[in-house]
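Sanity check. The docking grid for zinc ion depends on where the pocket ends up, so I'm generating a full predicted complex first rather than guessing from homology. Inputs follow.
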Amino acid sequence: MEMCLHLFERRVAQDRGFTHYFTGRPCSKGHLRTRRASNKNCLGCISDRASRYREKTPGYKEARSAYDKARWEEKRDSLLAMAKIRYQKNKEKHLEYTRAHWSKNKEKYKGLNKIWRLNNAESVRLSSILRKKRTRQATPKWVNRSEISLIYKEAWRLSIETGIPHHVDHIVPLNGDNVCGLHVPWNLRPIPWLENLKKGKRLDFIVVTASLDDAEATPTLIS
Ligand SMILES: [Zn+2]
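Predicted complex below; grid placement will be based on this.
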């Protein structure tokens, strides 16, 4: 469909084979919008009519959401793939929007998080226990614990020095989806807390780590 946004009268648009035209004059309802060359219909009026129809038709909302649900279930994979492509294409825009939204609503989200933690004290406690257990299980017997504590001290030092809280990040997550990292010095690094939370369980490179009882194996990072 070819759109024409230069100023054209209908006849000119038709002569040139355009499907739409724009005169620069508002319609009788006051829309300054493109019109269809085939029947002069203003696009603003068309969308108004559609929303009036949606509002006055009983059961429209329910039918529409049932249709959307069925479509989602039927075409889930291709819809997801399409969304992914769209996201990749506009990645910078997405990031920019998310950042702006976060910095605008930071206090609100922090407050909500606090309330959630208070209301869900039991799951907070449980996940802390699980995290400690995971860390214990991922710590080989042969590892030098004082080296590990040095990294935690470094995170503490960075937090004080920069004023930004630093967390100790597992480069390969302990509970990754495909690989599991170890709680060993070469899998640990101090990073700003927000970066750590943003990273989650994601892993940007393939890593071969030493096994739990093999002190000789060398970890290899392939970027
Ligand atoms: Zn109109």
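Relevant for the grid: Residues 60-89 form the longest helix (30 residues).
Also worth noting: Helices lie at 10-15, 43-56, 60-89, 91-119, 121-137, 145-162, 193-199.
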